[in-house]
Structures are given as structure tokens and as C-alpha cells.
Specification:
Organism: Geobacillus subterraneus
Protein name: Bactofilin
Order of helices and strands: EEEEEEEEEEEEE
Family: Belongs to the bactofilin family.
Number of domains: 2
Helix content: under 10%
Mean pLDDT: 93
Amino acid sequence: MAARNLTINGSAFSGGGTFHHVTVRGDATIRGDVECDRCKVFGSADMKGALTARQLRLFGQANIDGPVRMEKMDVFGEADIRGHAHLQHLQLRGMVQVEGNVEAHAIRGYGELSVSGSCEAEKVALTGVVRVGQTLNAEQVELSLYFADSSVKEIGGRTISVKRNKTWNAIHWLTRFSSLSATLEADTIEGDEIYLEYTKAAIVRGERVTIGPGCEIGLVEYREAFAQDEHAMVKEKRQR
């Protein structure tokens, strides 16, 4: 990879290219695809093309008008990706919106993840809001509902846990601006071990299924074990 660096201080325009490090301090517009080892944004970056990097650290806002491919993406702010995202690790402290699909090894953090297509990962562990237009598929799915309602068309995984966040943490001060009645809405949830709270779903299928408080489920199909909280509603249940 080329040894040259791209550094933007203040408000400026630049062309794309291949770089070692890309650093933005201020407000930058970059036209063209960018390939680099490491990209850091302190402020705002409007990237008119694809971004390929080993690591992106974002402190502020980035609009990426194309697909992204990277090993690690740390977002402390807001990222808007208009294309598919291929990642190893996504660490979220803010908001990520993807107009496409997401493929990742691990997705963790706090805030909001919005994916218009499908999201595939080994592990998803998020506190906040998750909106996936198609399928969320992971070996481990751990959703802690917070801020506002979440929605996923289909969820598939080996272990699936959906709970409402009840703990005090560094972002708890936002409570006064947020709903404490967050729920998850899904068409189908399917896995081996399933535990759900405050979830509305048409169909839940699993080996061992626990329907916790606040749930409204149309049909539960289970193979080995089923449990239901007294404050949950299940219209129909059957053992396969």
C-alpha cells in the first residue's frame, strides 16, 4: 500500500486514492474511492465513493456513498453507509445506518443500528435500537431494548436473548428524552435457545423457548421445553 498520507484540517475537498493513513479534523469532502490502512475522522466526512480500510475510527459524522470493507469500525457518533458493509468488528457508540446488507464477525455496543437489507454475523450484542429490514442471522443474538422500539423481519440464531434494558450506564442520562417502554417487533424468530421479553412476533420456533413478560406471540413451536411468564400472551403453542 502507498506510503503517502491524506490529512485534512478545517474545511476542504480532496480526491480519493490509496493512502497509508487518512485523517480528517474538521469538515471534509472526498470524491472517489478510498483505500487505506487506517482512517480517523474527528468532525465530519462526506465520502463520495467506496471505503476500504483496516480500521475506521469515527468521532463525529461520516456519510459514505458506497460500500465499505474493513476489519474494525469504531463509531462514536453517526455513520451513514449507502452500500453493503463487510466488517470483522463493529463497535458502536452512536448510530450506524446501512442502505444494503451487513456481513460481520461481531457487532457490539450501544445506540442504533439500522440495516435496510439483511445482517449476518457470528455475534450481535447491542443495547438500544435495532432495525433490520430483512433477516438478522447470528450464532448469538443479545438485544437489550432501550430508547425506542426495534423491528426485525426475521431473526435466526443458535441462542437468542431479547430483554428490556433496566441498568444504569453511561448513557442513562438520555432517559429523559427516551421511551422506557421499548419493544421488539418481528415476523419470525427461530433458534435453539430463545428467551424473549417485550416482543411482538407472529411465530417463534425453537428447541427451548421462554416467553417472558410483555410478549405478544401468535404461535410458539418448541421441541424440548417451553415456559411462559404470567404477564405474557401466547395465542397458540405446540410441541413439534
